Amino acid sequence: MLNRFDARLSRRSLLRAGGAALAASAVGGGSLAASGGGDLVEVELLAKQRMQRILPEPANASPLVTYAERFPGPVIRLRKGQRLRATLVNGLTEHTSIHWHGIRLSNAEDGVPFLTQPPTKPGERHVYEFTPPDSGSFFFHPHCNTVELLGRGLAGALIVEEEGGPAFDADLVCMIKDWQLDKNGAFGAFTSDRGASRAGTFGSVSTVNGLIEPVIDVPANGDVRARLYNVDSTRVIDLRVEGTESGGGAWIIAVDGNPLPPRPLDGWPMGPAMRLDVIFRAPKDPGKTLRLTNVYSAQPKPLAVFRSVGTAVSNKRFTPRALPAANIPQPDLKNATVVPMAFSATAVAQIFDDALLTSLPFADSLCLSEKTFWAINQKSWPEGGHERLPPPITTLEKGRSYVFELANLTPHLHPIHIHGYTFSVLSSDLRKVVPHHADTVLLEPKERLRVSIKADNPGDWMFHCHIIEHQDTGMMGYIRVA
Ligand code: C2O
Ligand code: CU
Questions:
Q1: Where are the beta strands (DSSP E) in 184-283?
Q2: Which residues line ligand 1 (CB under 6 A)?
Q3: CB neighbours (10 Å) of residue 249?
Q4: Whole-number mean pLDDT of the chain?
């Protein structure tokens, strides 16, 4: 499958001479709707049901919900400094919105229905406009009825190209996701009480870019940058690239889009919504392959194969080089206030008192979930309850620095995500932490993890578990920065 790369083109000329086409073909046909050069990139994202084959025949094509003709799509690519104007067109039969996961943008563009914008009704349009301040591999998805919509494929990649930095011979997007399909290709239940109250409901078939164990062509002897996304709603994965001739495997060069000194990809579990940018050297001989494998489960699971094609690129010895450093505001740790955040099951939780809830004028009852299995600081706020606004978990003073002490009081993993900010990940009482930046951190059972922000971005920002069923059933709240 997939096209051949012209291995002689440099990364820069690839981008100029059709980076859009490259990006689209690299993910197996997702279309890029970008237009306009210069500093503004415009895209239109029509969210609707589209049939797409996930399972081989004789199964039927599956009723996905996507932002482009095919999952995963589109890949929106910006250069750092470019502005994005994205128009959501709601072709669904329910209201929706787009959340730009990982982008430090202004609160009004954050795409959380009821909290930061009225939901966009069927047939309506909503325009988002922002200039991402950071380069990196980001993505976007809805923020209501997410368990079904993301379960059916409603997500796309937003890539912000850094300025300068090492050149790559290929730049791939790998969107890793399971699907909850029966053998005929029909979707099964996306959630169950049993799953939601434990580790979550797992899909039945694993894919990369919507394909079961695809063969992804890479330029022979090329330095390949692969942007690995966990866009599953539930599954934690731990990836390896096996079979490299350099012996070095793959190297992590960014976490959630944020550069860090290169380190081997040999044990960095990724919860839902987490991303890793990795680099590896493709085999010299055309036809030779590498394997992308998930080793998180007892039985390692092959996900995809990278196959060398074309005339070998004339690269010298492989050395992973760092991306230009991120520019995340540095928290002032000496003067930071510690904010405890406890993630628990509802045995110890209470539902918000009705009197504390603010009713919003544009409320409706779509995707209301009555179930509350989880809590943050002993309060439950199910996703479907977006239209009834509880008080913030905490209010932070704009400009000050804060350390969140994230305490997992449960026996399950929780990928904890903050909107509008990027954490500086500091320390854990369970393991040695590699200092890095991330918008989503994976809490291990019983772990206490310390992360920090400088509260420079005012607004109401969601703070939740990214196992969607946990978010749906109470492990969600927001912080206010004012
Ligand atoms: Cu990726 Cu609040 O979400
Ligand atoms: Cu969770």
A1: 205-208, 215-219, 223-230, 239-242, 251-255, 258-264, 275-281
A2: 99, 101, 141, 143, 273, 417, 419, 462, 464, 466
A3: 17
A4: 88
